[in-house]
Fold Phage protein, HK97 gp10 family.
Amino acid sequence: MADDGGLARLNRRMAAIPKAVRDALQPALDKGADEMVRKMKSMAPKEDGDLVGSIRKEPGRHELGRRIVAGGAATTKPVAEGHSAKYDYAVGQEFGTAEMEAQPFFHPAKREVAPRARNRLKREARKAIRSIWGKP
């Protein structure tokens, strides 16, 4: 059997969550993702605006997933004048380059917002479970 990196196990676990609980978690997931996007945009360098505009929320691999991404076509530039190789300067901003110090915005924002978002999800899951099976 081919190793899928645990995706099959994750899909089985997601399918085991009652639909009512999954539905109750959607607003909390979106709120956490939106909060993370706002924080990243506030921390990102704003020289030309392309980087800030490229930070966005996308659907994840399953219905309880959200992806926060930065970069893409708007921030992909040639390595140097006359070269065909390109790089995404969102990565250069986050980790630095040979000619520029790192100006991290993605991971610091994630570290700051993730615990709050995780706790919000736990609260909403507990509320949804209690509403389905009653209070203990």
Q: What stands out?
A: The chain has one domain: 9-133. The chain has a mean pLDDT of 88.
